[in-house]
């Protein structure tokens, strides 16, 4: 039997950010209801590479069980690939596969958008972005989907890439996009701050943060390598993540491990479901650790397959 095989082009043409945000919002609802199986990721060190597997299932959907796999040592290689596969639980058949990194980036961006929707101030007007790679792009796309920003400030170490990113950002939104010469000029003005870098050292000083800011950190979050200072947690009134299971699985490597702040870490699904209070004070700083909620790639791939089937447009291998 022919198996549908989708590529980045299919993802680009059939899935948009509002749809991805909707799927992620539903995923957090399932997590709160206990109908999302989302274990911590698995990693196989194979000497020539390290394969990372994220697995998951929506237990209330009979056709939504699967995994995503990629080589983490090639995470920033332009030629890297990812594979997401979805199975039917009724007969074990393969429903379809997605090859390429765009699905994962879209999903991570959408999770960031959900976090901004629920954790940032509704009157947030200035968006700051540190980083100019593919993750920064989907984070930006999600952010402007859930908040109406009047100004967007961007900075990255590569002036050329940052200029290209700022130009692309200008096409996504009517907000005034400013290319800043330093991280400080981004951070000091931001009501919402997105850190989407590969940096192993903090990319800004926590003293620059405004009161009332919400922060999404997408990049490294370990004691040995982190794009944000560990001390930011102590300055934040609310610490939130998409996956408590993944935070626990990181163990002593995780940046909050061994601190009193680890016990304060809350699941975003608990806030969305009302199990934890959602309202925030105007001066409150909130910090979202994007760790990767397992199963969400599978849910997004499943939606892709449904949209293609509805349009009678499923590519066959």
TrEMBL record:
Highest taxon, organism lineage: Bacteria
Cellular compartments per GO CC: cytoplasm
InterPro entries registered for this protein in UniProt: NAD(P)-bd_dom_sf, ODC_Mu_crystall, ODC_N
Family matches, as PANTHER family: KETIMINE REDUCTASE MU-CRYSTALLIN
Name of protein: Ornithine cyclodeaminase
Lineage of origin: Bacteria, Pseudomonadati, Planctomycetota, Planctomycetia, Planctomycetales
